[in-house]
Transcriptional regulator (Emticicia aquatilis), 218 residues
Amino acid sequence: MKNEFLKNWDTQLKKGLLPFFVLQALNQKECYGYELIQTLKDSLGIEVTESTIYPLLIRLMKEDLLIHKWVEQQSGIPRKYYFITEVGKSNLAEMQKSIVEIIEKIQQQ
Amino acid sequence: MKNEFLKNWDTQLKKGLLPFFVLQALNQKECYGYELIQTLKDSLGIEVTESTIYPLLIRLMKEDLLIHKWVEQQSGIPRKYYFITEVGKSNLAEMQKSIVEIIEKIQQQ
DNA sequence: TTTAATACATCGTATAACAAAGTATATAAA
DNA sequence: TTTATATACTTTGTTATACGATGTATTAAA
């Protein structure tokens, strides 16, 4: 079991990595919010709650990195699908560069 | 020049990585606060201000990951040297494991 | 004598994850 | 039938932490 310090640290680390992982995921395939939570968990082992993901998606839309489209379902609640924009793609590319640099710094020490 | 989104993202990423880099640096060699700012910049290219590093060091001491010792100088202001504790070392080891896992996740996609 | 570098400290602000609570639909179990 | 569970989106309040701004003090160089 992780101690308080490590749990807290994990949370802070997530603050930086989550926007990157979300843009990365949406760059590969459009998703709706609830689906994204599953995707992050299944493919990356990253656990996020709805109260984290929905405000984040709203923020990324305000920054013009994402757009959304409501899609009605034959049954059940409509889904809000998110798509990465060109702005989103260029920002993601910058983020990838930064991440690669940081990884190199971590590995070279 | 980075846009607002990316500058902000850099800051958030730092929130997670900084405690790791600080512990890592102090694990290699004890430092005083002002020296640590130079070390982080010179060896990792990470720019932090005093209003970031001093509260962080205080926090890591409260968590028992660090201890400090004042060292008087022949001339000038006394220096507060920080040393990593056993608790600090074990937490750093956990952080290293997490970081390695995250790097693997980033690289495998 | 004034500027800059060294060295430590603190206050206020902004950002963002997350718990908690809420709304709504659909299905399976009791 | 009622209840629980899963799906799907939203918002409010709390908490953690980087950082700008500001302050104190010492020393050396311009």
